[in-house]
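ARCHIVE CARD
Drawer: 12
Card no.: 0347
Subject: one protein chain, sequence and derived structure
Cross-reference: see card 0346
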Amino acid sequence: MDTYTTPDFSRTIPIDKVGVDERVARLNKRSIKKESKLQGLKLALSMIDLTTLEGKDSEGKVIQMCAKARTPYAPMPDLPHVAAVCVYPNMVATAKKALKGTGINVASVSTAFPSGMAPRTVKLEDTRFAVEQGADEIDMVISRGEFLKGNYSYVFDEIAEIKDSCGSAHLKVILETGELETYENVRKASDIAMYAGADFIKTSTGKISPAATQPVTLVMLEAIRDFYRETGRMTGMKPAGGIRTAKQALQYLVLVKETLGAAWLTPEWFRFGASSLTNDLLMQIVKQKTGIYEGREYFSED
């Protein structure tokens, strides 16, 4: 039973923007040795949530994406598979069947993704349907309008209800940081999500710009660190959108290591929501192992 006290969310924790930006800049200057770089690239690959969230999604497209999730690059069968695939609720059953026995999770967006503009009853039904179809993880979006009005209890209660509807599925709470306007709001939304029961907090839907940034991610990582110190409960982190290169992925891993420690450097606690990142990671892994860059045409686009 939880014994910690839920804080007063009307209180704002001030964020030193200059300090955040300077810390990110310092950490980005870290050099990584060749042997550690290959290990980091493989780790990043294993942390990807391979995603398709388009109105034209079909069963065939989802099955093809699942094939890549299982075997990212056939000429190197020793590479790790990705952490999860993420689809709309009506595609969960297709993905679940395609990934049976692989250990790859099926995630589903929920709660009127990406806007979150629907009655709570609809959001709850959306979540229950995805779980009934076999979703291992639910990616929900918070009600940004209510948050920005200062209706923090509404946001808290909604997350808590969605969490209850998830059953055994893990809940990833999307803050849509590009709409929250300030670091202080990002910190407050992170705290609300975690105290309401989030298993992960996630920057973005990928549908709004700006999406994930390293400074915003650092603010969220520090919120996770402080929540862990207060409650003893670990929370996962998922930056999503705008992370396209292996170099950026390694920089994010450094942020995690330096802020939260090695315990968070696993797919159980850290994910990338960036399907376009996959092929750049594969290109860099091939380069590290063979000394040769393969062209992008050698990798499937999913």
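Annotation on reverse: The radius of gyration is 19 Å. The CA atoms of residues 70 and 256 lie 26 Å apart.
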